[in-house]
Write a structure and sequence with these properties.
By secondary structure, the protein is an alpha/beta fold. The protein is built from ten helices and eleven strands. The strands form three sheets. It has a six-stranded parallel β-sheet. A three-stranded parallel β-sheet has the order 3-2-4, with helices on both faces. α2 links the parallel β2 and β3.
Length: 281
């Protein structure tokens, strides 16, 4: 039986409509500030997409496009200004930053209650103890997708391939909170195939095209491919060899059109939740 394709694009549209319905009732709209330093083409595409999302969701947005030579002090001063503004509920500094800037110091400067990307150590700690009000966008999007398709992680073995602070580690925490048994693997795991074959839910987030072949997928497993890579032919692809995995999986996400749209949608939801936390209704 062919796998059911989990349509992240359609679900993201549903989430954004839910956000729009909420913002339409609010006297004071949620506000998101996006800061872009330099002229990285991929970052520009992401920022443009976030601006469109805000428009669709009824969220007020501001963009700060700074030159690549912006100093650390100038960037920190902008963040501090945004921290103090009541009309701005979320601050997003688009990564990566130019090499001369201290990424960690910039992320630490964002107020935790405005950290809609959830990179601040306070929010990471809240996630660890199961009390996160704002959740990292990609892992939260994956959990929403599983719920939408009636996939309950409780009692299942979830194998996560990837240990990044953005996806792998927080994904493990969210799965644990849903009572899954979690194994975190990575590109240096010995016998990665044997670990993947144990997975009822397999989350691939290592950023290496073709890492997960079809024979590494257990029959009936749920396969979530987070990665966005380029094949040798220049085609967008994930970590999973899609055609092979789809023959064995029960559910699978495509690349593109799977997790990516959900990440952006959950950013909108986080911005709404931040506004609620700031007393906006």
């Amino acid at each position: 039986m062919a796998a059911t394709i989990m349509d992240g694009k359609a679900l993201a549209a549903k989430v954004k409509e839910e956000v729009r319905e909420q913002t339409s009732k609010m006297e004071r709209k949620p506000g998101l500030a996006v800061v872009l330093v330099g002229d990285d083409p991929a970052s520009r595409v992401y920022v443009n997409g976030k601006r469109r999302d805000c428009g669709e969701c009824g969220i007020y947005s501001e963009e700060y496009a700074l030159p690549a030579e912006t100093s650390q002090q100038e960037l920190l001063e902008l963040v501090e200004t945004l921290n103090g503004r009541e009309d701005i509920d979320g601050i997003l500094v688009q990564l990566p930053l130019p090499r001369h800037l201290d990424e960690k110091a910039v992320l630490l400067a964002i107020r935790p209650d405005k950290d809609v990307d959830c990179f601040h150590p306070f929010n990471v700690g809240q996630l660890m103890i199961g009390e996160a009000y704002l959740r990292p966008c990609t892992p939260a999007g994956i959990m929403r997708m599983l719920k939408e398709y009636g996939i309950d992680p409780e009692g299942k073995h979830c194998v996560i391939v990837g240990r990044s602070n953005i996806v792998g580690k927080p994904q493990a925490m969210l799965m644990l909170q849903e009572n899954a048994t979690v194994t975190v693997c990575h590109t240096r795991t010995r016998d990665l195939k044997a670990e993947c074959l144990k997975a009822d839910i397999l989350v691939a987030a290592a950023g290496r095209a073709g890492l997960i072949s079809g024979d590494m997928v257990k029959e009936g497993a749920v396969v979530v491919d987070v990665a966005m890579n380029r094949s040798e032919a220049g085609k967008l692809c994930g970590d999973v060899v899609y055609d092979e995995a789809a023959e064995r999986a029960s559910y699978i996400t495509p690349v593109p059109g799977g997790v990516g749209p959900m990440t952006r949608a959950m950013l909108m939801e986080n911005t709404l939740r931040a506004a609620w936390q700031h007393g906006k209704r």
